[in-house]
């Protein structure tokens, strides 16, 4: 059985195992205009982003489940491994930080929002956003195999510096997530085109065991 991966939702806009694939940018990155709010002391400042890291993170995995030739509904629940969160930590600066504005700027930077359109980033900028539900339905398999269910998110973390007027720059770190997804794998079947650190590979190593075909690159 081939690995089956399903995207559950694309959000409007880390890893729990070593070796997770990541896309990292070092040095001062692109800048994005801040959105003025009533909470900012200095309006129309600029965010500069660096150490931008985007990676797929395994958030839950179920124990392997033996399914007979006629297929069956999977009954093993996913065990939580990582709870994604949306947060901003302000580390330095004389002005009070604006978490929503910082996340809004990050959403523009990574392409999850347009500079002149707020709608697509509304969830990404919500610091009270709930983590994805790991128990959100049932799955039926129509053939035999040793099956593992897993869930994951694409997590984004980045450092920033906000400058505005003659005041001292504000620095900090923002984190959020842009996609949550789920998948199925069969322990005796190698996963095609899998990269080291991928959620499917991590799930196979945890539930199938390190010697299973699905656990090897």
Percent strand equals: 35-45%
- Find the count of extended strands (DSSP E, 2+ residues): 11
The span between the termini is 16 Å
Query: What's the total helix number?
Result: 2
* Helix percentage range: under 10%
How does the overall form come out from the CA principal axes? elongated
Outline the low-pLDDT stretches: 1-28, 31-40
Structural class: mainly beta
Q: What does the main sheet amount to?
A: 9 strands, antiparallel
- Elements, N to C (H/E): EEEEEEEEHEEEH
Describe the structure.
Helices cover 9% and strands 37% of the residues. With 217 residues, the chain is mostly beta strands. The strands form two sheets. Strands 1, 2, 3, 4, 5, 7, 8, 10 and 11 form a nine-stranded antiparallel sheet that branches. The chain is elongated and about 70 Å long.
Provide the descriptors you would attach to this structure in a database record.
217 residues; nine-stranded antiparallel sheet; mainly beta; elongated
In short:
This protein has 217 residues and is mainly beta. It is 9% helix and 37% strand. Strands 1, 2, 3, 4, 5, 7, 8, 10 and 11 form a nine-stranded antiparallel β-sheet that branches. The chain has a two-stranded antiparallel sheet with strand order 6-9.
């Amino acid at each position: 059985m081939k690995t089956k991966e399903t995207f559950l939702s694309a959000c409007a806009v880390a890893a729990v195992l070593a070796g997770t694939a990541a896309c990292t940018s070092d040095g001062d990155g692109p800048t994005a205009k801040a959105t003025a709010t009533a909470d900012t002391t200095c309006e129309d400042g600029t965010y500069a982003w660096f150490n931008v890291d985007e990676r797929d993170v395994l958030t839950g995995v179920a124990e392997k489940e033996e399914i007979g030739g006629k297929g069956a509904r999977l009954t093993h629940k996913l065990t939580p491994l990582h709870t994604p969160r949306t947060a901003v930590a302000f580390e330095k600066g004389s002005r009070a930080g604006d978490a929503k504005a910082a996340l809004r700027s990050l959403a523009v930077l990574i392409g999850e929002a347009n500079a002149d359109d707020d709608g697509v980033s509304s969830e990404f900028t919500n610091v009270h956003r709930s983590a994805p539900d790991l128990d959100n339905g049932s799955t039926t398999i129509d053939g035999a195999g040793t099956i593992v269910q897993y869930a994951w998110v694409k997590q984004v973390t980045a450092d920033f510096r906000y400058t505005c007027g003659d005041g001292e720059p504000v620095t900090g770190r923002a984190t959020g997530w842009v996609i949550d997804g789920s998948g199925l794998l069969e322990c005796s079947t190698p996963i095609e085109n899998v990269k080291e650190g991928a959620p499917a590979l991590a799930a196979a190593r945890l539930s199938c065991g390190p010697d299973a075909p699905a656990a090897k690159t």
